[in-house]
Structure formats: structure tokens, C-alpha cells
Amino acid sequence: MRHLVDSLARNFQEAVENIVYLDHVDSTHALSLRIMDQMDGQGLELGPTVIIAGQQTLGRGRGDRRWESPAGGLYLSWARSGLARDTITALPMLAAAAALRAITENGVAEAGIKWPNDIVVDGKKLAGILIHVRGGEGGWATVGLGINLRTAPDVSRTAAAATTAMADLVESAPFERWCVEITTGFISSLTRFLADPGPALDLWRRRLIHRAGEPLSVRLGGGKTLTGTYQGLTDEGFLRLGTNGAEQIITSGDIFETG
Prior knowledge:
The chain has 259 residues and is α+β, with helices and mostly antiparallel strands. It has helices at 2-12, 28-41, 85-104, 166-169, 175-195, 197-206; strands at residues 18-25, 49-56, 73-80, 112-114, 118-121, 124-134, 140-148, 215-219, 225-233, 239-243, 246-250, 254-258.
């Protein structure tokens, strides 16, 4: 895969300092965290780094749930230090906007965003994003992106949302082409959005699939479930959920069922 890494390096130019490609890994997210821990522990900074894998054996989703990661998908993590606090706060929205743009630029014009940052088509999950941030002086963060390229994982025996794949939606392309084009588009957009968040936040809000009054069920981090209706967003992008005549503000969670 040396030529794939060379192609990525040419496209990234100055946006990325380090590129790692592995045929198999436990999790690009877990590896990214290990690198962050080691660098931080030695008092070193980490320039923009991208880790890509052809397959994950222990892929992770939000809340430590497993992300099915068979061969034929694209699994990557971007990491760096030195991010400002405001940037870290907006990172879930910026990453979702960057992923959406990369996917639509590769032909899936109908893709939308399910709060906070799943990429869906007709209610079926195409891509997921996992973010880990560490505040303080270093401003460390890693953004994981998993996209179903050739096949959609079978989730029929689980409570997970239905899935779809790029190959179900557009003419299939060789893995290397999709890997280079989608990864380059995602990282390029994310880099621009970090410097100028306004357009990304506007795109994120416009492409959310939810509408006022829509029934929602939200699974919170501790496993608790809240059911209500979509009332919009706060200025920070948090979910406003109407429940029994009141309104609750949800800062993080998974919408696992819509009406």
C-alpha cells in the first residue's frame, strides 16, 4: 500500500504531518489514543496525524459500543494537539460537516446528518464519527471516521440502526480510489473548518434530518433513554428535546429511533 500512502501524502500537502496505513488494527481510535498518551507523557506536541486501516478487529462507536468494521470499509482517525478550547467544543459538528462534504463530493448528494454526527441516507447509517478530546494546555483531540464503502454491516440481530454502503448508492469504485478521495476530502475540509468554523456550522445545521415536532428516542451515556419530540438546537448545537410539556437539553447521546 506504499503507493496509496504516497497518493495521500501528495494530496494532503501541508494539512497532515504523519500518515499511518495498516491492513489490520484493533482500532484506529485506540491506536490514536495510545499515540496521544505517549506523546503527551513525554511532553511532546503532535502535528496533524492520520491513521487508516483496511479492517478493524475492535472498532468502537460512541459509548464504547462496537463499530462493525469488516474489510471493504474505510476506517480512519485524525489526531493532533494544540487546539483551542472553542475549536474543541465545536469539533463534533465540524467533523460531521467535513464527512458530509467528502461523501457528497463522491456522489451521495442525498446524505444528511443525524444528530449529532452520524451520516445517513434515507434513515440508514452510512458513516459514524467518534471523538475524544482532552482539554488543558495541550488541546488534544482525535476524530474517528468509519464509512461503509463496499458492504453494509449486518445489524439485523442488534438494536443498531439500519445501515447502507457507498456501493449501494453510487457506482462502486476501487478501494484505493475511494480511500484517497474521501480521506483527502474529509481532512481538507476539516482543516479549513478548524480555521473558519462558520461555514461548517451552517452546513451542519442545514443538513440535519430532524424537523420540529418529530418524535425522538435518545440513549444517553449512562444507558438511560429519553423519549420526546425534536424542538430544535441550542446555540451550541445541543439537542432540545420536548418531554411532557417540558424541555430537556441533551449535550450528547444517540438517537436510535425516530417516528
